Amino acid sequence: DQPFMKPSAVQATYTAGTIVELQVRVTAHHKGHYEFRVCDKALDASKLADAAEGQACLDKWVLHRAPPAADCKANGPADCQPIDENHPERWYLPPPGHDVQVAGSDFQDSDATTATGYEYHTMRFKIPADLSCEHCTLQWYWSTGNTCFYDGDYIAYFQKMKSLGWEAASWAPAAVASWATETNIACGPQGTGSFGEEFWNCADIKIVPGGPTPPPTPAPPTPAPVPTPMPAATPMPVAAPTPMPVAAPAPQPGDCAALWGKCGGASWTGSTCCETGSYCKRQNEWYSQCVKGTAPAPPPTPMPSMPSPTPAPSQPQPQPEPKPEPEPEPEPESKVDCNQLCSLTDLSSSGNMCSANSGSQDACTKTFVKKAGFMVPCSWTGCSCVADAEGLLECPNQATLCTSLLQARGKAGTPPRLRATSRHVQRSWGAAFIQGNNVSMQRATLMDQELDSDIISREDERGVE
């Protein structure tokens, strides 16, 4: 059932055989990768037998990434990431920005807070040279990676990225871990048995033929030599009249970009004006877009201020004795480390989660849960007990460690503290979308509810699953 799958006006026009720039806005970072597909007709749910018929049309034209720019270097812009030789259609999400919320592997919808930041992901894809359509459907697909990865090919890709000098561990830490295998990081029955969230969105577009490349113009024949004539008398120079300046013609409506179309950015050579009722808004250094409304008026130019007279020198005043600055407070240590887990109760052994202790703060702070070798302490929020993703620990051989600690405590002295590998994440919620007025997000069912992840739906949904 696709109640919002109805064609709308064409949002953008592309040329076959060219490279286009696409942009995705993200308010909650879920890792994973994006893909784009094109159906060479306008998809209408009322004319489709089922969703599979619409997806089959989209699968005919899977867009591939354009080669990275010549000046790309390791750890540069996200679109500089190496092309996946096994999956040239994938564009992997870079590490989240400072203001973007992050969905951790132990995230629950009840932990979500209001989104306050977002970021744009800008990427370039190739339009197939033999594709043209008056009204076609562009599909965006996001396979998230905060719970599990789409397949085991993530391991090969990110390990190669690491060998090329990229900080791959900040993109997909589990994929470059020494213990990573398809069975413990991939989704589905061949992997962990769980399924990550998936998002879809569609836009109505038009693709015009690119046309053949014109043949080179032949060189003109070399003329025969002409005898040099006798020089004539040089006439007196006559000054030519200075032409009156002619105002540049105003851009015609057809010359300007349509609503939601691109109108500027680095290396952009197309139109920089927008159709009536919209204006060109700068999104970032690489992308400007035509949006509804009127451009805000520029701030007034400040009037230059008169220089103030130079005051007469005053008598020097005695300076007070400098006071030593206070020593900075030491940073607090992590709330819980691998040693301290030995004194907490493992709720996972009884099949419970942190929420089982939402009625008692004292009981909450004395428990933890574990999943696939990761330990997550429970944290009291003031009214409930949740898994504290900021204290995520990797504690191999935890049982051996706890036994050693019990033996050490029977002797004099205190056993040394062991340093744990901690992955700090921020609990959050959010949404994602691509160009177009209509938006669709669908959530895949999670087979493993122990480690859920966040999703927020948007109004005016539109998509093909």
From TrEMBL:
InterPro entries: CBD, CBD_sf, Cellulose/chitin-bd_N. This is CBM1 domain-containing protein. Keywords: Signal. Transmembrane segments: none annotated. Residues 255-291 form the CBM1 domain. GO terms for cellular component: extracellular region. The keyword Kinase does not apply. Residues 210-232, 295-336 are annotated as: Disordered. Residues 211-232, 296-321 have a biased composition (Pro residues). Residues 322-336 have a biased composition (Basic and acidic residues). GO terms for molecular function: cellulose binding. Pfam families: CBM_1, LPMO_10. The keyword ATP-binding does not apply. One of its GO terms (biological process) is carbohydrate metabolic process.
